[in-house]
């Protein structure tokens, strides 16, 4: 996703640091669409957002994983 400039290297580090993998995001988005993708990325853990709650970033990832939306 970095090579195609979908998300920045910083966001990629946050995703990796959260324990999420591309396959997790892909499965969630295919099952539940955009809301399935939003849920693990914006989950609050220990009072902090897991990765991001930015709609722009979530939609960019969704468009990469689900090009038909």
Describe this structure in words.
The protein has helices spanning about 10-15, 20-40, 55-65; strands at about 45, 50. With about 70 residues, it is mainly alpha-helical. A two-stranded antiparallel ribbon has the order 1-2. Strand 1 (about 45) and strand 2 (about 50) form a beta hairpin. The longest helix is centred in the middle third of the chain and has 21 residues, at about 20-40. The two termini are about 15 Å apart.
Please give the share of residues in helix: 55-70%
Question: Strands of the biggest beta sheet: in what spatial order?
Answer: 1-2
What order do the helices and strands follow? HHEEH
The number of distinct β-strands equals: 2
- Structural class, judged by helices and strands? mainly alpha
Strand content: 5-15%
Strand count, sense and closure of the main sheet? 2 strands, antiparallel
Estimate the global geometry from the Cα principal axes: globular
Task: Report the average pLDDT across residues.
Answer: 89
Distance between the amino and carboxyl termini: 17 Å
User: What are the segments in which pLDDT stays under 50 over at least 5 consecutive residues?
Assistant: none
């Amino acid at each position: 996703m970095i090579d195609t400039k979908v998300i920045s290297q910083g966001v990629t580090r946050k995703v990796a640091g959260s324990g999420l993998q591309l396959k997790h995001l892909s499965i969630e988005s295919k099952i539940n669409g955009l809301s399935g993708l939003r849920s693990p990325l914006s989950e609050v853990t220990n009072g902090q957002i897991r990765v991001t709650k930015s709609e722009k970033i979530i939609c960019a990832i969704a468009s990469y994983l689900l090009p038909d939306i």
